[in-house]
Amino acid sequence: MIQEIITYPTPPSVQYGTDVRIFDDTIVTLIDDLKDTIIDNNLDGLAAFQIGSYWNVIVVKKEDGSFLELINPRLISTKGKITTIERTAYFPKLSAEITRYDNISVVYQDRDGVHLSLGASGDFAVLLQRKFDYTFGANFLSKLSKEERKKFEKKLDFGTDIAISESCPTVFRRDYFLKVANIVMVAMLLLLGASLFVSDAQVAAGMWKYQLYASFLALGISIGYFFYGYYEGKKYTTCTSCQVGNLIGTVIISCIKLTVIMLLSYFII
Q: Fewer beta carbons below 10 Å: N end or C end of the chain?
């Protein structure tokens, strides 16, 4: 029967796996449930902990697609190190860089209680170690380096790997739009100041005409700033919302400054 997989932030129901002592139909049913859940979720393995069971039982897929059942598994020897990018059903859509043993030896029992052993290397060894973590009430979070753990905690905040693969820059190309708009408004202020010393009506009319053209230019640049900034911000998924807010606020401020300049120009020029 397909079971629900426990996911973050729900903690495991117990602290560590309890070894199986009686190999009866309860364990067989648990193993079958693990297989059904693995198939339904297209996973490569599950520990009983991941579906809320306290038994020390693991089921994983082998390279040929068949299942390996491990009851009361123990890691007895290790050799070498390997660093990989891992994912786990407990943290959906998230991954982390983890260093594990490249070669391991394991002892375990099958569903009949027979003691067996095996050696594993590479990806299969990593898979087994990932499932072993759950038998101790843990997950790959406990295996992360300090630096990688900080990165992963940021991923948890956003619920996505993108939180790490990209970050919001502090300087954008859209800022050039804003600089040009500010230059135009400074020029308008200078012209407004110069108009105070002009008494000729024809010259004043020319100045007002220039102010109108300059205001349209500044407004157009501000609008261009907003749309280009929105396009540019879409590249940074983790900070889209804050960028849109900043864009709107900046455009509003720019329009207010432009409005004040034009009102002063209307009454003075």
A: N
